[in-house]
Amino acid sequence: MCMIAVIGLLFILAVRGFGHFWPATIIEAVYYDIANENQPVPVLGQLVETKEVSLEQLQSAGMQIESVNGSQFMSRHLMKVGNRDITGQDFVWVLQDYLHNIEQPRELVVIERREWGNFYGRVEALKKEGDIVWQAQAGQAFDRLDNPLFEEQFSRVKTLIEAIDKIEKEDISSINHGLERLRLKERRLALDYGGPLPDNHVDVIEIKQMRIVFNKHYESLQKELARLYEAISRDTLIALTADGKKFEIPLAKIVHVFQPNAMSLPDKMAAYLYKLVEFLTDEPREANTEGGIFPAIFGTVMMVILMAVMVTPFGVVAAVYLHEYAKQGMVTRLIRVAVNNLAGVPSIVYGVFGLGFFVYFIGGNIDTLFFPEAKPAPTFGTPGMLWASLTLALLTLPVVIVATEEGLARIPRSIREGSLALGATKAETLWRIIIPMASPAMMTGLILAVARAAGEVAPLMLVGVVKLAPSLPIDGNYPFVHLDQKFMHLGFHIYDVGFQSPNVEAARPLVYATSLLLVAIIAILNFSAVVMRNHLREKYKSLES
């Protein structure tokens, strides 16, 4: 039953999540809107979901509707019509019996934009530097695969956008980081000196020279940015909505252009893989309802690895002390009771403790001792990756201690006595015999710790996780690994997209896809640990026998 439940869960997550990336067919129809006195309204979009609803339910919602063919149920479709900046909504519900003249024209396009979601319609014309270079004619509809002008311009704009992103996210970010380090260095010198340093001080002169170099480089980058933005601002696409209204879309705001109705099965499969890879490697857009989730994947894996590195030595040392060195009396029994009770403490309590102890107490004192020049802005006295990892290490510590102690208890006493009889000290016996033989149990504790920590959300909301992190905790700026930075996490991303999103219908498939990905990451981490545990178990099996 457990296997059936797990397989069923994974199947639902996969179908509802990864099915979202398939380029579905676009339909065009006329809908006789009941709420508007059966006035014909053109609709154009993709079918997302179909439900059977009763007439009684529709009538109770205020719809003046009657039975068709004597049936007491009607099919209701959820259609993604996009064009949110024009109509104000991405999705509409329509009744199957009131849809007429349903067609699937080949020229219909899905334009995925950086803002306002998808646009559904037809391409009317293409502009280059303000001049029309292609115009749709009678009998000549837009076909991306057979339009070299569009491919040439779109590729050019994408290249320019990549150059802009590099300047903004790497070059200018590096300059800002350097200027901030100069500011902190100048303030630190002033604190050490007891006041502002004289202008002829050698350190002040060096800081001023470096600042001049940074500012000159920044000015040159700004000029280059202005040139690039000017180069892409006049290339646009003129599109038509379902009701024939013209809408001009800058090519710089377009991510992809698809024509699902004109695509063959291999083309759709290629587009599907492209979107799937983009989901895994890109940054989120549109309040996390578009784009990818790579920052959340990176943050989750890095936090779990840091947590494992922190919790394993502390858990092993505590277990070894309790089992091998501590006198087995009342105090030791009370400690074991406390460890077992800690395993049942709600995770949010650990989050509150981490916020108070790690962030405010330890982080605040670290800022006072080592980063006084940055105050009152906190450096480590604010939630971040380090404190989140420590909090989860504390949360999973009882699991590692209990599993390691059980492994130590299973090692026969004769092995200890034999090692001591051969002249080894107790420390040598422990380090070379006991701990290696107990390593499979340690790995079991680590597996359980990783499985719990990777899915925790409540404590992370207090000690480091945010909705959207502007940069990764690892970059090219010194000291390269920024454990003081806030980060994204798959568990919190699921919560945010599923319950805090302004566009629920658009976010729903991403909740399923991200959930499946989180389960997959936990499974991969656990599988790696299981392989290591089995290897260690086989290695030391002969000693146990």
CATH hierarchy class name of the largest domain: Mainly Alpha
Query: So what's the overall shape?
Result: globular
Helical stretch tally: 16
State the CATH superfamily name of the largest domain.
MetI-like
The figure for the number of domains is 3
Overall mean pLDDT score?
Answer: 85
Topology order in helix (H) and strand (E) letters: HEEHEHEEEEEHHEEEHEEHHHHHHHHHH
How big is the Rg? 31 Å
Q: In a few lines, what is going on in this structure?
A:
This protein is α+β, with helices and mostly antiparallel strands and 545 residues long.
Describe the structure using short key phrases.
545 residues; alpha+beta; MetI-like fold; 3 domains; six-stranded antiparallel sheet; five-stranded antiparallel sheet; 16 helices
What do these coordinates show?
By secondary structure, this protein is an alpha+beta fold. It folds into 3 domains: 24-104, no CATH class; 119-275; 295-544, MetI-like (MetI-like fold), CATH 1.10.3720.10. The chain has helices at residues 2-18, 55-60, 84-87, 148-193, 202-233, 265-281, 294-325, 330-342, 347-370, 385-410, 413-421, 426-455, 460-463, 490-499, 504-539, 541-544, and strands at 26-33, 39-54, 73-80, 91-95, 99-103, 109-113, 118-128, 131-135, 236-240, 246-250, 254-258, 284-285, 290-291. Strands 6, 7, 8, 9, 10 and 11 form a 6-stranded antiparallel sheet that branches. A 5-stranded antiparallel sheet has the order 4-3-2-1-5. It has a two-stranded antiparallel sheet with strand order 12-13. The radius of gyration is 31 Å and the shape is globular.
